[in-house]
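Reminder to self: keep the SMILES exactly as supplied, no canonicalising. Ligand is NAP.
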Amino acid sequence: MNQSTPSGFALVGPGRAGTAIATALVAAGEPCRAVAGRAPDAPSTTGTASALDTRATTVAAAGRAAPLVIIATPDAEIETVAATLAATLQPGALVVHLSGAHGLDALEPLATRRADVELGALHPLQTLTGGDDASVLAGAWAAVAGPPTVTRLAHRVGLRPFPIDDAARPAYHAAAVVASNHLVALLGQVERLAAAAGVPLAAFEPLVHTTLDHVFALGPAAALTGPVARGDVETVGRHLDVIADDERRAYTALADLAGRLAGRDEAALREVLA
Ligand SMILES: NC(=O)c1ccc[n+]([C@@H]2O[C@H](COP(=O)([O-])OP(=O)(O)OC[C@H]3O[C@@H](n4cnc5c(N)ncnc54)[C@H](OP(=O)(O)O)[C@@H]3O)[C@@H](O)[C@H]2O)c1
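Structure tokens returned for the bound complex:
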């Protein structure tokens, strides 16, 4: 894709990630030629097409509409969409999916049927909730695979691309899931434990922000404070005495990880966590 001569793109999958990438591409001067979703009249398809000032259409028609096609469907739909696109893509088109869990293998139906098209994967290492503006991508990293045009596409929307092999993807994506989704799940536990003490989640905001700042400034091991890092096993035991049964498994698993990070493996700690 040439930066100085915008050639346009089509979006298949008008959800959280697709809308963010499409909005950023339009802001970068790349016009959106078509949007396809589950159906041309599905609310997400018509709504996104209208927001991007383009038409809502079918997956097959989207393939015909532009030399760049972004697939932003749920992971399980990528292969089906790729098979549909095979019949209609422009010669020499670039097709890119946004999944972190899958590599170029997910585009196998195109690899076997359309030797003339380029295939890529571009996973924005960012959480996209649908309400964000395109600037949420600026400065975020992105795992890319495929020809140099995929790397240029990432730069175009302000991402910082790095290559990743298909073999390394499961571990990479697991790390991303822990960094974002599990962190959110953990803060859900913070909210429940705090509520039991009559304290609002908001009271923990400066603590959480400062903790994250320390992790990225000092590294996780040096950023760790608290009873496990201090070897204060009695305090850990007092927590376990009062927290609800259904919160205990997550607490002990994470206390165990804290012990590993702190290099603590005392019998007393192992005993209280057992
Ligand atoms: N969200 C993130 O934070 C994030 C970050 C990086 C990468 N990604 C990747 O982006 C991709 C999409 O994730 P998402 O979170 O954006 O999901 P999402 O919000 O659920 O969006 C998926 C979209 O695809 C549409 N769709 C479903 N099946 C389809 C089909 N067969 N043909 C065409 N459109 C179809 C859905 O239609 P309906 O609206 O009718 O349901 C929806 O608009 C995934 O590969 C994910 O790994 C997501």
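Points to follow up:
Strands lie at 9-12, 32-36, 55-57, 68-71, 94-97, 118-124, 141-145, 160-163.
Residues 1-6 have pLDDT under 50 and may be disordered.
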